[in-house]
Design brief:
This protein is α+β, with helices and mostly antiparallel strands and 141 residues long. The chain contains two helices and eight strands. The longest helix is centred in the C-terminal third of the chain and has 13 residues. The mean pLDDT is 90.
């Protein structure tokens, strides 16, 4: 089975995914790692290829005052909201991150800010998502 592929890495929020062995479905074993002191931990979940595609589409157009959501409903939900960072030259972003193991029951819930984020993080994540989606042949059980 392919190793975990980091599909998003912005410091204190890292999302890794790997194809889940299957004969028919294209699902991904996914780990959402949060290191927002004093809160830290990992949510392990499964996302479909459609979940990852929708997240990549949202990230492609993400700019300041934008939002991208991975998952939701009964699945884990990761929500990113971006704004220009005040008081910094060079066009860096502040990213508000919200993570919950279940989008329709948002407890437990952690929300934190990541500062000094290069706007290119979104295009880097899109390329990584496309890489993990393109695994061929798909691993079998």
């Amino acid at each position: 089975m392919p190793a975990d592929i980091p599909i998003l890495d912005i410091g204190t929020l890292v999302i890794d995914a790997s194809p889940r062995p299957s004969f028919s479905d294209r699902w991904f074993d996914t780990r959402v790692r949060v290191g927002a002191h004093p809160f830290s931990g990992t949510v392990e979940t499964i996302f479909t290829d459609e979940d990852l595609k929708q997240f990549a589409e949202q990230l492609e157009g993400l700019g300041p005052e934008g939002e991208a959501v991975l998952g939701g409903g009964r699945a884990c939900e990761v929500r990113l909201a971006t704004e220009w960072q005040n008081g910094v030259t060079g066009g860096l972003l502040a990213v508000e991150c919200s993570v919950t193991p279940s989008g329709d029951d948002p407890f437990p819930f952690v929300r934190f800010l990541i500062f000094d984020v290069d706007p290119s993080f979104a295009s880097t994540a899109v390329a990584s998502i496309r890489d993990v989606e393109s695994v061929d042949p798909w691993p079998r059980p």
